[in-house]
Design brief:
six-stranded antiparallel sheet, single chain, 333 residues, alpha+beta, 27% helix, 2 domains, 9 helices, elongated, DUF6925
Length: 333
Protein backbone atom coordinates (compact mmCIF):
# COMPACT_ATOMS: atom_id res chain seq x y z
CA UNK A 1 0.00 0.00 0.00
CA UNK A 2 1.52 3.31 -1.09
CA UNK A 3 1.45 6.30 1.26
CA UNK A 4 0.06 9.29 -0.66
CA UNK A 5 1.56 11.81 1.77
CA UNK A 6 5.01 10.28 1.30
CA UNK A 7 4.67 10.08 -2.49
CA UNK A 8 3.66 13.75 -2.76
CA UNK A 9 6.30 14.90 -0.29
CA UNK A 10 9.03 13.12 -2.25
CA UNK A 11 7.69 14.49 -5.55
CA UNK A 12 7.99 18.05 -4.23
CA UNK A 13 11.75 17.52 -3.99
CA UNK A 14 12.11 16.18 -7.54
CA UNK A 15 12.93 18.72 -10.25
CA UNK A 16 11.25 16.73 -13.01
CA UNK A 17 7.90 16.47 -11.22
CA UNK A 18 5.21 18.99 -12.17
CA UNK A 19 1.91 19.99 -10.58
CA UNK A 20 -1.33 21.66 -11.48
CA UNK A 21 -4.60 22.73 -9.92
CA UNK A 22 -7.70 23.90 -11.72
CA UNK A 23 -10.47 22.71 -13.99
CA UNK A 24 -11.18 21.96 -17.64
CA UNK A 25 -10.33 25.38 -19.04
CA UNK A 26 -8.75 27.20 -16.08
CA UNK A 27 -5.54 25.71 -14.78
CA UNK A 28 -2.41 26.84 -12.96
CA UNK A 29 0.77 24.79 -13.37
CA UNK A 30 3.98 24.62 -11.35
CA UNK A 31 7.14 23.25 -12.97
CA UNK A 32 10.77 23.53 -12.01
CA UNK A 33 13.11 25.39 -14.39
CA UNK A 34 16.72 24.32 -14.83
CA UNK A 35 18.11 27.70 -13.76
CA UNK A 36 16.15 27.70 -10.48
CA UNK A 37 17.69 26.41 -7.23
CA UNK A 38 17.11 22.71 -6.70
CA UNK A 39 14.07 22.02 -4.52
CA UNK A 40 14.94 21.10 -0.98
CA UNK A 41 13.30 18.71 1.45
CA UNK A 42 9.91 19.88 2.65
CA UNK A 43 7.84 18.66 5.56
CA UNK A 44 5.01 21.09 4.91
CA UNK A 45 4.08 19.99 1.38
CA UNK A 46 5.10 23.31 -0.13
CA UNK A 47 7.60 24.28 -2.81
CA UNK A 48 8.16 27.61 -4.52
CA UNK A 49 10.63 29.52 -6.67
CA UNK A 50 10.75 33.10 -7.94
CA UNK A 51 8.39 31.95 -10.73
CA UNK A 52 5.59 30.28 -8.76
CA UNK A 53 4.69 27.82 -6.05
CA UNK A 54 2.60 24.84 -4.98
CA UNK A 55 1.21 24.04 -1.54
CA UNK A 56 -0.84 21.04 -0.50
CA UNK A 57 -2.87 22.04 2.56
CA UNK A 58 -4.76 18.80 3.14
CA UNK A 59 -4.72 15.28 1.76
CA UNK A 60 -7.59 14.15 3.99
CA UNK A 61 -10.18 12.21 1.98
CA UNK A 62 -8.06 12.56 -1.19
CA UNK A 63 -8.34 9.61 -3.57
CA UNK A 64 -5.35 9.31 -5.95
CA UNK A 65 -6.11 8.19 -9.50
CA UNK A 66 -3.04 7.36 -11.58
CA UNK A 67 -3.37 7.24 -15.35
CA UNK A 68 -1.59 7.37 -18.68
CA UNK A 69 -3.16 9.13 -21.65
CA UNK A 70 -2.42 8.67 -25.32
CA UNK A 71 -0.44 11.37 -27.06
CA UNK A 72 -1.28 12.34 -30.66
CA UNK A 73 2.37 11.41 -31.32
CA UNK A 74 2.44 7.61 -31.66
CA UNK A 75 5.70 7.08 -29.77
CA UNK A 76 4.63 9.02 -26.65
CA UNK A 77 2.14 9.11 -23.81
CA UNK A 78 1.45 11.40 -20.87
CA UNK A 79 1.02 10.41 -17.24
CA UNK A 80 -0.29 11.87 -13.99
CA UNK A 81 -1.78 11.18 -10.60
CA UNK A 82 -5.03 13.08 -10.11
CA UNK A 83 -5.71 14.14 -6.53
CA UNK A 84 -9.46 13.71 -6.22
CA UNK A 85 -12.08 14.39 -3.60
CA UNK A 86 -15.62 13.08 -3.37
CA UNK A 87 -17.69 15.49 -5.44
CA UNK A 88 -19.51 17.03 -2.49
CA UNK A 89 -16.17 17.80 -0.77
CA UNK A 90 -14.51 19.33 -3.84
CA UNK A 91 -16.93 22.20 -4.48
CA UNK A 92 -15.57 25.73 -4.29
CA UNK A 93 -17.51 29.03 -4.41
CA UNK A 94 -18.33 29.04 -8.14
CA UNK A 95 -18.58 32.82 -8.34
CA UNK A 96 -19.77 34.13 -11.69
CA UNK A 97 -18.48 37.72 -11.45
CA UNK A 98 -15.24 39.47 -10.52
CA UNK A 99 -15.16 39.56 -6.72
CA UNK A 100 -12.69 41.22 -4.32
CA UNK A 101 -11.64 38.84 -1.54
CA UNK A 102 -9.22 41.08 0.37
CA UNK A 103 -5.57 40.54 1.35
CA UNK A 104 -4.27 37.05 0.60
CA UNK A 105 -3.27 36.16 4.15
CA UNK A 106 -2.64 32.53 3.14
CA UNK A 107 -0.19 33.31 0.33
CA UNK A 108 2.74 30.91 0.06
CA UNK A 109 5.35 33.66 0.40
CA UNK A 110 5.21 36.11 3.30
CA UNK A 111 5.86 39.06 0.99
CA UNK A 112 2.69 38.33 -1.00
CA UNK A 113 0.28 38.32 1.94
CA UNK A 114 -0.65 41.98 1.59
CA UNK A 115 -1.58 41.49 -2.06
CA UNK A 116 -5.29 41.92 -2.80
CA UNK A 117 -6.98 38.80 -4.11
CA UNK A 118 -9.78 38.90 -6.68
CA UNK A 119 -11.80 35.88 -7.75
CA UNK A 120 -12.02 36.13 -11.54
CA UNK A 121 -15.57 34.75 -11.45
CA UNK A 122 -15.00 31.87 -13.85
CA UNK A 123 -17.71 29.73 -12.18
CA UNK A 124 -15.62 26.57 -12.06
CA UNK A 125 -16.77 23.79 -9.77
CA UNK A 126 -13.54 22.78 -8.04
CA UNK A 127 -11.36 25.89 -8.28
CA UNK A 128 -11.61 29.57 -7.39
CA UNK A 129 -9.33 31.06 -10.04
CA UNK A 130 -7.95 34.37 -8.79
CA UNK A 131 -5.55 37.21 -9.49
CA UNK A 132 -3.51 38.99 -6.80
CA UNK A 133 -2.02 42.46 -7.02
CA UNK A 134 -0.87 45.62 -5.24
CA UNK A 135 -0.65 47.56 -8.50
CA UNK A 136 -2.66 50.74 -7.88
CA UNK A 137 -3.80 51.21 -11.48
CA UNK A 138 -4.95 47.61 -11.81
CA UNK A 139 -6.66 47.68 -8.40
CA UNK A 140 -8.65 50.73 -9.48
CA UNK A 141 -9.91 49.03 -12.64
CA UNK A 142 -10.70 45.75 -10.86
CA UNK A 143 -12.62 47.50 -8.10
CA UNK A 144 -14.56 49.64 -10.54
CA UNK A 145 -15.66 46.50 -12.40
CA UNK A 146 -16.24 44.14 -9.47
CA UNK A 147 -19.62 42.47 -9.81
CA UNK A 148 -19.33 42.14 -13.59
CA UNK A 149 -18.36 39.16 -15.70
CA UNK A 150 -14.84 39.43 -17.08
CA UNK A 151 -16.24 38.27 -20.41
CA UNK A 152 -18.93 40.96 -20.58
CA UNK A 153 -18.61 43.01 -23.75
CA UNK A 154 -16.81 46.26 -23.03
CA UNK A 155 -15.50 45.21 -19.61
CA UNK A 156 -11.97 46.70 -19.34
CA UNK A 157 -10.95 44.39 -16.47
CA UNK A 158 -9.74 41.44 -18.54
CA UNK A 159 -7.60 43.55 -20.90
CA UNK A 160 -6.14 45.26 -17.82
CA UNK A 161 -5.27 41.89 -16.28
CA UNK A 162 -3.61 40.71 -19.48
CA UNK A 163 -1.58 43.91 -19.66
CA UNK A 164 -0.53 44.07 -15.99
CA UNK A 165 0.37 40.37 -15.48
CA UNK A 166 -0.71 40.06 -11.83
CA UNK A 167 -0.04 36.90 -9.86
CA UNK A 168 -2.53 34.14 -10.58
CA UNK A 169 -3.72 31.95 -7.72
CA UNK A 170 -5.70 28.72 -8.12
CA UNK A 171 -7.48 27.81 -4.86
CA UNK A 172 -8.90 24.34 -4.24
CA UNK A 173 -9.96 22.27 -1.24
CA UNK A 174 -6.57 20.55 -1.22
CA UNK A 175 -4.33 23.59 -1.60
CA UNK A 176 -3.16 26.17 -4.09
CA UNK A 177 -0.88 26.88 -7.02
CA UNK A 178 0.49 30.39 -7.46
CA UNK A 179 2.07 31.77 -10.64
CA UNK A 180 4.22 34.90 -10.55
CA UNK A 181 5.38 34.93 -14.17
CA UNK A 182 3.83 36.83 -17.06
CA UNK A 183 0.60 35.68 -18.67
CA UNK A 184 1.21 33.97 -22.00
CA UNK A 185 0.14 36.26 -24.85
CA UNK A 186 1.42 39.18 -26.95
CA UNK A 187 3.98 40.18 -24.29
CA UNK A 188 5.50 36.68 -24.31
CA UNK A 189 5.47 36.06 -28.04
CA UNK A 190 2.21 34.16 -27.85
CA UNK A 191 3.68 31.35 -25.74
CA UNK A 192 3.44 30.49 -22.08
CA UNK A 193 6.71 31.16 -20.22
CA UNK A 194 8.87 28.23 -19.25
CA UNK A 195 8.00 26.89 -15.81
CA UNK A 196 4.93 27.99 -13.81
CA UNK A 197 2.14 29.37 -15.97
CA UNK A 198 -1.63 29.52 -16.31
CA UNK A 199 -4.27 28.91 -18.96
CA UNK A 200 -7.75 30.41 -19.04
CA UNK A 201 -9.49 29.09 -22.14
CA UNK A 202 -13.05 30.42 -22.60
CA UNK A 203 -14.02 27.75 -25.13
CA UNK A 204 -13.21 24.99 -22.65
CA UNK A 205 -14.80 26.90 -19.76
CA UNK A 206 -18.10 26.95 -21.63
CA UNK A 207 -18.11 23.14 -21.64
CA UNK A 208 -18.76 23.23 -17.89
CA UNK A 209 -16.70 20.09 -17.25
CA UNK A 210 -14.39 19.37 -14.36
CA UNK A 211 -11.89 17.36 -16.43
CA UNK A 212 -11.16 15.92 -19.86
CA UNK A 213 -13.19 12.95 -21.03
CA UNK A 214 -9.91 11.09 -21.57
CA UNK A 215 -8.98 11.35 -17.89
CA UNK A 216 -10.37 8.19 -16.24
CA UNK A 217 -11.80 9.73 -13.07
CA UNK A 218 -14.31 7.38 -11.39
CA UNK A 219 -17.88 8.59 -11.00
CA UNK A 220 -18.44 10.54 -7.81
CA UNK A 221 -14.89 11.92 -7.67
CA UNK A 222 -13.63 15.34 -8.76
CA UNK A 223 -9.96 16.05 -9.55
CA UNK A 224 -8.71 19.06 -7.57
CA UNK A 225 -5.10 18.87 -8.64
CA UNK A 226 -2.53 16.61 -10.20
CA UNK A 227 1.02 15.41 -9.78
CA UNK A 228 2.97 14.80 -12.97
CA UNK A 229 6.01 12.63 -12.17
CA UNK A 230 8.89 12.62 -14.62
CA UNK A 231 7.73 11.38 -18.01
CA UNK A 232 10.05 8.68 -19.39
CA UNK A 233 9.85 9.89 -23.01
CA UNK A 234 8.97 13.63 -22.83
CA UNK A 235 11.23 16.36 -21.48
CA UNK A 236 10.21 19.37 -19.40
CA UNK A 237 9.80 21.56 -22.48
CA UNK A 238 7.75 18.98 -24.35
CA UNK A 239 10.68 17.67 -26.36
CA UNK A 240 11.40 14.01 -27.12
CA UNK A 241 14.03 12.48 -24.88
CA UNK A 242 15.74 9.08 -24.70
CA UNK A 243 13.65 6.49 -22.89
CA UNK A 244 14.25 6.72 -19.14
CA UNK A 245 13.61 3.24 -17.80
CA UNK A 246 13.93 4.33 -14.16
CA UNK A 247 11.24 6.99 -14.57
CA UNK A 248 9.04 4.46 -16.38
CA UNK A 249 9.39 1.86 -13.63
CA UNK A 250 8.76 4.44 -10.90
CA UNK A 251 5.46 5.49 -12.42
CA UNK A 252 4.36 1.91 -13.06
CA UNK A 253 4.38 1.42 -9.27
CA UNK A 254 1.96 4.33 -8.88
CA UNK A 255 -0.10 3.06 -11.78
CA UNK A 256 -0.41 -0.44 -10.37
CA UNK A 257 -1.53 0.97 -7.02
CA UNK A 258 -3.91 3.70 -8.15
CA UNK A 259 -5.00 3.21 -11.78
CA UNK A 260 -8.41 1.95 -12.97
CA UNK A 261 -8.37 -1.83 -13.04
CA UNK A 262 -9.52 -2.12 -16.65
CA UNK A 263 -6.58 0.04 -17.80
CA UNK A 264 -4.05 -2.16 -16.02
CA UNK A 265 -5.71 -5.36 -17.20
CA UNK A 266 -5.81 -4.22 -20.82
CA UNK A 267 -2.15 -3.22 -20.88
CA UNK A 268 -1.07 -6.48 -19.26
CA UNK A 269 -3.20 -8.46 -21.73
CA UNK A 270 -1.54 -6.69 -24.66
CA UNK A 271 1.93 -7.41 -23.25
CA UNK A 272 1.05 -11.07 -22.62
CA UNK A 273 -0.21 -11.59 -26.17
CA UNK A 274 2.77 -9.78 -27.69
CA UNK A 275 5.13 -11.93 -25.64
CA UNK A 276 3.33 -15.02 -26.94
CA UNK A 277 3.69 -13.79 -30.54
CA UNK A 278 -0.06 -13.66 -31.20
CA UNK A 279 -0.84 -11.87 -34.52
CA UNK A 280 -3.05 -8.78 -34.35
CA UNK A 281 -5.75 -10.55 -36.38
CA UNK A 282 -6.12 -13.09 -33.56
CA UNK A 283 -6.29 -10.50 -30.77
CA UNK A 284 -9.40 -8.62 -29.61
CA UNK A 285 -8.97 -5.13 -28.21
CA UNK A 286 -10.94 -4.10 -25.09
CA UNK A 287 -14.45 -2.77 -25.41
CA UNK A 288 -14.15 0.11 -22.92
CA UNK A 289 -12.60 3.52 -23.63
CA UNK A 290 -10.19 3.18 -20.69
CA UNK A 291 -9.28 -0.38 -21.69
CA UNK A 292 -8.51 0.63 -25.27
CA UNK A 293 -6.23 3.39 -24.00
CA UNK A 294 -4.35 0.85 -21.87
CA UNK A 295 -4.13 -1.54 -24.82
CA UNK A 296 -2.69 1.15 -27.11
CA UNK A 297 -0.24 2.49 -24.56
CA UNK A 298 0.85 -1.07 -23.96
CA UNK A 299 1.78 -1.34 -27.65
CA UNK A 300 3.75 1.90 -27.53
CA UNK A 301 5.59 0.95 -24.36
CA UNK A 302 6.36 -2.58 -25.57
CA UNK A 303 8.32 -1.06 -28.46
CA UNK A 304 10.53 0.87 -26.04
CA UNK A 305 10.90 -2.07 -23.68
CA UNK A 306 11.59 -4.73 -26.31
CA UNK A 307 12.45 -3.00 -29.61
CA UNK A 308 10.88 -2.96 -33.04
CA UNK A 309 9.50 -6.07 -34.74
CA UNK A 310 7.15 -6.97 -37.60
CA UNK A 311 4.69 -8.32 -35.03
CA UNK A 312 4.64 -4.99 -33.19
CA UNK A 313 4.19 -3.06 -36.44
CA UNK A 314 1.23 -5.34 -37.20
CA UNK A 315 -0.33 -4.56 -33.82
CA UNK A 316 0.29 -0.80 -34.09
CA UNK A 317 -1.29 -0.73 -37.56
CA UNK A 318 -4.32 -2.67 -36.35
CA UNK A 319 -4.99 -1.00 -33.00
CA UNK A 320 -3.11 2.28 -32.45
CA UNK A 321 -5.31 4.45 -34.60
CA UNK A 322 -8.31 5.87 -32.69
CA UNK A 323 -7.84 9.65 -32.71
CA UNK A 324 -10.68 10.28 -30.24
CA UNK A 325 -8.66 8.68 -27.44
CA UNK A 326 -5.64 10.95 -27.78
CA UNK A 327 -5.06 13.86 -25.43
CA UNK A 328 -3.31 17.16 -26.29
CA UNK A 329 -0.03 17.21 -24.38
CA UNK A 330 0.02 20.97 -23.77
CA UNK A 331 -3.49 22.43 -24.17
CA UNK A 332 -3.35 26.16 -24.63
CA UNK A 333 0.37 26.48 -25.31
Amino acid sequence: MLDLALVTQQALTQEDSGWNMGSFGAIAEFHHVDDDPSPGDTKEHVQFTSRGGIRLDSLENVVPVAYETLSPKPHRWTQAVSLCLPQEMAAMNQREVLTELGPDADAIRVEDRQGILFDMGLNQFQVDFCVRTLDGDLLKILRENAGRSLFEVGNPAMPAILAAHPHRVALTRIGRVEVYQMIGGPDTGGKSPEGPHTHVLPKLLRAGRTHSANTPIPAGLTPCGALHPENPVIGRLGEDKPFNRAAFDAFQKLLNAWAPEDYITAKQDAWRLLEQGVPAAEASEPTTRVGRAGWRNGIRQWRLLHGNSPLLDDWASAFDREAALTEPENPGH
